[in-house]
Amino acid sequence: MDFLILAIIILAVVAIFQLLKIYELSRELRPDEAPVITEADSRMNARLGIVFIIGFFTFILWCIYKWGDKLLPEPASKHGVEIDQLWDVTMVIIGIPFIICNVLLFFFLNKYRYKKTNKADFFAHSNKLEAIWTVVPAIVLSALIIYGLRVWNDVTDHTSISANENPVNIELYARQFDWTARYAGADKKLGDANFQMINGSNALGLITPEAITDRLAEITKDSVALRAKLDEQVRLEGIIFPKKSKPVDPHAHGAASHDAGAEHHTPAPNPEAHAKEGEHGGGHHEDPYAWAGNSKPVRAIVDELERLSRMKRSIETFAKKRFTSSGDDLLVKGEFHLPVNKAVLFQFRAQDVIHSAYMPHFRVQMNAVPGMKTNFAFTPTITTAQMREKTKNPTFDYYLLCNKICGNAHYNMKMVIVVEDQASYDNWIKEQKTFATQMAALLAPPAADSTITQTLVPATDTTMAKAPTAKPAK
Amino acid sequence: MSHVIDHGHAADDHQDHHHHETFFNKYVFSQDHKMISKQFLITAIIMGIIAMLMSTAFRLQLAYPGEKFPILETFLGKWAKDGVLDPSFYLALVTIHGTIMVFFVLTGGLSGTFSNLLIPLQIGARDMASGFLNMLSYWFFFVSSAIMVYSVVIETGPASGGWTVYPPLSALPQAMPGSGLGMTLWLVSMSIFIVSSLLGSLNYIVTIINLRTVGMKMTRLPLTIWAFFITAILGVLSFPVLLAAALLLIFDRSMGTSFYLSDIFIGGQALEQTGGSPILYQHLFWFLGHPEVYIVLLPALGLASEVIATNSRKPIFGYRAMIASMLGIAFLSFIVWGHHMFITGMNPFLGSVFVFTTLLVAIPSAVKVFNYLTTLWKGNLVLTPAMMFGIGLVSFFITGGVTGIILGDSALDINVHDTYFVVAHFHIVMGSSAIFGMFAGIYHWFPRMYGRMMNKKIGYAHFWLTFVGAYGVFFPQHFLGLAGVPRRYYANTEFPMFDGLVDINVLVTSFAILAAAAQALFLFNFFYSIWRGPKAPQNPWNSNTLEWTAPVEHMHGNWPGEIPHVYRWAYDYSKPGKEKDFVPQNIPMGDGEMDEGH
């Protein structure tokens, strides 16, 4: 049906086009018309202008009638009410000049349209008029700026919330293409995290002693595998190492040496040692891997080994410092719950690209930026159940959307937000599992409790992100 | 190249050494500003058609998500298997549509066409200060356009991160297919484009300052020239910053630097680039990006001022206030860029400063609107097609301008940021206004460019269909924004909260197709009239400015004899005591006559 309408529109335009073409061709046969604009031209367009302006305002009213109730319902947060009041005031202030100026424009078009006998009024300037329409907008805007900034200050000032209201602490963690909500656990603090900690059992890169051990063991395992690959590649290519090269010691500068079995049995030189030298300023002028010649595979493996070694040292460095363990934090996917009438302090982080946490019903939006922590605090005031009643929509849900273009599945990156009374919220929170339990379950043998693995976040789920990368065009 | 410059000094022997024009130096590597202007215009029209067709393709997807349009597969091949647009190519289309429209049509096309055409003709100069740089400016523009179009057809698709190409999305090929070679080509194309823009702008500034004819004081310049002058200054001050941003992005992409990158885990790997900030890019980008809005808009306002005054048969009201408001807008445009970044986590106090400066822009803008209305008041409005497009521009400027007050107010911006409300706002105030300014310019100066007239009836049909179409496309999008629909979503089907809004998208898409189809009228009218239109009289609109005193036929040096001298401002329309309702700038003052533009 809709397609039919489209087809009709297209055909209509094509028809107009053809008619004009015929008109144009037939005009060729007649003597040249004067190309001037006649009174009739001006009259026709002036009248069309009147039709337009009436039609335009009718169209606006029709849009309001048709879609007015499909817009966002009343704000479901404390500060949202303030924002909506500012919105209403602003709409009145901008609505008046919008209507008056558009109406005047088309009214003048008709009233002063060209007539042969008329002469325009030579009216070049008037200081008085110009002063009026500079000063009046200036005054109105000053008032609007002051009002707007007061609201802005109220909305963005989180200090009183964090100091007085004992808010719920939640982190929204974004990555291509899903959200994870992390609730502060028993210690009421969001624990620390570092992106170098991210792996299959730790999608958010959270820091706990167990996670550090796990991550370091993984790096060691990867290094060993890589070194085996290096040996194999070296053997294949028949590369000869210089004699002075030391045998590999994966833990030469590591603190946590658990895996002694991997040591001292390969003849490969020690890329990690070289990496360390490089860091201290030496070795930049001389290629430490001259022995590898032009072998790209060998150099790629050596680079990767160096990278792992650097990452390992970095993890060891922050592992030695004091950190707040994230083991007690609760990780939630799919939907997250908020207690009604209680302040919530959000922290936003991103794993890969910029995302934006958009919760339109609460009048909340904040970007999640890799390498940064951003914050926003608000108090939800209407539960999901109440909003279902208010909107007369039994399936109504609050949503968290991603509102910064982040890749192919950007349009489908969401969480449901459930606002409920304190008791239901407390019950729900009790059911949620801590990061420590979730990680333990994931690291346990495959036969482990399947219900836990369901709630876990597979860190390397990059099926969407892994769409084909750049290849040169043919 | 010397023969072009000679004319400036040796006007008298002009007839003697009429050049041996070959096809190449007349139509291809021309240094004549009028020809370069036509080259810019034709290139921009082609780019405009491409970008417009792209928009109809993604509008189909938005109105009928998942439905099959075999025609899409015919044109897009693997990007629309079975006639359904691929999500990654949807983003690519949105990105390239925006890039082409903002930079290639409304910056290069608009300024390139009309600054080139009108600056020498309206200030009374033989040509641009440097014809050679002017030629380079066009050819850089051409090369960058070609690269941008080429990037659309490569294997992995063009840049797809939105026209603002924010890193890390645009910096990491792992993040999306379009961030690979397509993004590299985008950056190369934009860098060349910036060179073109800078060469052009410097030329415009130098020409306006140095080559005005006798008597053409700055306060007698037509408002078009003031608009081009201020636009060129904006471009020279802001485009280099975009070049810097693009270069740093190139370094991040291919040399392992980390200006914009930190703490990123992508494609199963933690990147080693740490310490940078993605927000730095946004600051650099919008330091150009906001002045860019006025680089697009001011020339359109300048053209409209001239068209409206001429066809109102009345002086532009508040000539000096118009200049002052353009200067005010230009100045403010450099200190408002943060309003694109209210929700990036910037310090709320810094946000307040940007709210203050942003809302101030409304004052000079309001002055301009009121002055336009007063110009029409008690005029004798000759409603040419150009005049209608000028009126359309004023209407869009009002309608789109007022919503800027909402978006500039940080507290209100929170909930409509990056939604369709923003899409509606800037497509009306910047997109439609500027395009209408460009159309006004084309209809008004077509006789000056090609020596022939365009058909007025097709012109009117084109105007009304486009005007109604543009409002029909962009006005309902406000409602989508108020319902919380984010921009750059491939489909709105994944959120039950948007279920009731499908018919808005159907309506919008229908109007989009109508408006797009209406452009066929323009294309026919334009190309047909170049060869078959009736011959233009010397001064078809009874205008005061100098370009209408030059001969209709194409010639180097613009005037066969001496360059006319200027004795008055450009707006002596319907001056009391004069027989005709216009007095061109080259007519000396009568006894006791006052010059309004002094």
The end-to-end span of chain B amounts to 37 Å
Examine the coordinates and then state which fold CATH places here, giving the name of the CATH topology of chain B.
Cytochrome C Oxidase, Chain A
CATH top level of chain B? Mainly Alpha
- Separate helix tally of chain A: 12
**Approximately what portion of the residues of chain B adopt beta-strand conformation?**
under 5%
Number of helices of chain B: 18
**Arithmetic mean of pLDDT of chain A:** 83
Radius of gyration of chain A: 34 Å
- Beta strands of chain B, count: 2
Q: Which second-level CATH architecture of one domain in chain A applies? A: Sandwich
Cα-atom radius of gyration of chain B: 24 Å
**Looking at this structure, what is the CATH superfamily of chain B?**
Cytochrome c oxidase-like, subunit I domain
* Morphology call of chain B: globular
Could you name the ranges of chain B where pLDDT drops below 50 across 5 or more consecutive residues? 1-17
Shape of chain A: extended
Please give the share of residues in helix of chain A: 40-55%
Could you say which structural class the secondary elements and strand pairing of chain A correspond to? Answer: alpha+beta
> Main sheet of chain A: which strands, in order across?
3-2-1-5-8
How would a crystallographer describe the biggest sheet of chain B? 2 strands, antiparallel
Output the helix-strand order of chain A: HHHHHEEHHHEEEEEEHEEHHH
Description of the molecule:
The complex is a heterodimer of chains A (474) and B (598). Chain A has helices at 2-29, 39-67, 78-111, 127-156, 159-164, 209-237, 271-279, 296-320, 384-390, 422-431, 435-443, 450-455; strands at 168-175, 178-183, 330-332, 335-339, 344-350, 355-359, 364-368, 374-378, 398-402, 414-420. Chain A is an alpha+beta fold and 474 residues long. Among the domains of chain A are: 169-197 and 324-455, Immunoglobulin-like, CATH 2.60.40.420; 209-320, no CATH class. Chain A has a 5-stranded mixed sheet with strand order 3-2-1-5-8, with no helix packed on it. A 5-stranded mixed sheet of chain A has the order 4-10-9-6-7. In chain A, helix 6 runs antiparallel to helix 8 (296-320). Chain B has 598 residues and is mainly α. Chain B has a single domain, classed as Cytochrome C Oxidase, Chain A, CATH 1.20.210. Chain B has a two-stranded antiparallel sheet with strand order 1-2. The two termini of chain B are 37 Å apart. At the A-B interface, helix 1, helix 2, helix 3, helix 4 and helix 8 of A face helix 5, helix 7, strand 1, helix 9 and helix 10 of B.
